[in-house]
Design goal:
This protein has 13 helices and 14 strands. By secondary structure, the chain is α/β, with parallel strands linked by helices.
């Protein structure tokens, strides 16, 4: 199996490929898709392949922008990339569909949200390609208009451990680890609070206008995870167990995290998920006889100290770690987590792949483990990474 980690700025974009299956997970920003992902999808199409699954892990601008741009330019007239199914949890997936008319006051609230359009950071590659909500270009509206198979149907089911949770391919499968229904309900509660604050009084059940507003509202949310104070002075190291604290971002908590197995190669793709939720599900998986040694692990939330707990690190391991971030938001990745990953006893060599060179990726190169474990660092790792089953 091959995996490519695209230069998605502070976001995520991954393409997994075998001779039978191709899976795109997130798309970074529009520029990510235009400059880097598109050529690979054209190559897949030229050999009569398809995208067997597109996973949009959660509603954050740094994950969905490239997918929006992709679908905006993959319409019925110009469609050249076949997509067998898309996983994306929109309002349509989380509430009942209700096309009832809004009151004039509630319509004005929804309309004002939609008029804002996408945040500026979702602007595409030129003024001509600018992503505009006036074109019906929210992700939910594009999936619906394109007639794609959506969450194993028409998008009215959610992808979570309590609903759509598994997909089979010719050479493997995808298993959902998160979110739970509770985490998705937290997202709805947050949306309700926002609407009430805006003066909306009616039902929030799904229709196209409200679906658009739901997505755009979360794109604009600036849920800044404040970085902890720098705890390391010259020549000293903070104990990761002492500084870890749980992520509280509701959108991160709604992330679709997965185990993906293709050709016998097992990946742990953690999106921006909460460590506690991942740990809970992996303990269940382990109890069913599955190994917690993976062939590669995509670290949650760009290597944040708040999304990989010491307990999770004590359960899982892999010879390959993937860290996606240019450090432009929240200064991810965090050096304390990187040290904790490599400073565990192991009989094998770990390789940390970074899609950018950051101060932390350079600092970890010089770290001396206390356990004797060995590791190497690969920066600017945006070419195909071949994963071979030992």
């Amino acid at each position: 199996m091959r995996i490519k980690m695209y230069p998605a700025q502070n976001g995520d974009a991954f393409l997994l490929s075998t001779d039978k299956t191709n899976i795109l997970i997130d798309g970074g920003y529009a520029r990510t898709f235009h400059s880097y992902i598109r050529p690979d999808l054209e190559e897949i199409t030229n050999r009569d392949g398809c995208l067997n699954l597109v996973i949009v892990t959660h509603i954050d601008a740094d994950h969905i922008g490239g997918i929006i741009y992709f679908l905006l330019n993959n319409d019925s007239k110009t469609k050249n990339v076949s997509i067998k199914e898309i996983w994306h949890n929109s309002l349509r997936s989380l509430t009942s569909v209700n096309e009832a008319q809004l009151s004039l006051e509630d319509f004005e609230v929804i309309n004002s949200i939609n008029k804002r359009g996408h945040p500026k950071k979702l602007k595409a590659v030129s003024n001509y390609d600018e992503i505009s909500a006036n074109q019906g270009s929210t992700l939910a509206s594009l999936i619906h208009a394109g007639g794609y198979v959506w969450n194993d149907g028409d998008g009215t089911k959610s992808v979570c451990i309590d609903n759509v949770q598994h997909k089979l391919f010719q050479d493997g499968f995808v298993k959902v680890l998160t979110p739970s229904k509770d985490r998705l309900e937290n997202l709805i509660k947050s949306w309700k609070r926002d609407l009430r604050r805006y003066g909306f009084t009616g039902s929030i059940n799904s229709n196209q206008a409200i679906d658009d507003a739901f997505e755009l509202n979360f794109e604009h949310k600036d849920e800044v995870q404040v970085k902890g104070k720098k705890l390391i002075s010259s020549g000293r190291m903070a104990n990761f167990k002492d500084i870890y604290k749980q992520d509280t971002s509701i959108t991160n908590g709604s992330s679709i995290a997965t185990i993906i197995e293709l050709n016998g190669i097992r990946l742990l793709m953690l999106a921006d998920a909460w460590a506690e939720d991942i740990l809970k599900e992996l303990i269940k998986v382990e109890s069913q006889g599955e190994s917690m040694m993976f062939d590669a692990i995509k670290i949650s939330h760009h290597g944040s100290n708040y999304n990989t707990s010491p307990e999770l690190l004590s359960l899982v391991d892999a010879p390959i770690y993937l860290i996606s971030s240019n450090g432009s938001k929240h200064n991810h990745p965090d050096i304390e987590l990187l040290r904790a990953i490599v400073d565990r006893e192991a009989s094998f060599l770990r390789t940390l792949y970074f899609n950018y060179s950051t101060p932390e990726s350079r600092e970890i190169m010089d770290f001396q483990t206390t356990t004797g474990a060995t590791f190497i660092v690969e920066e600017n790792a945006t070419d195909w990474i071949e994963i071979i089953k030992e």
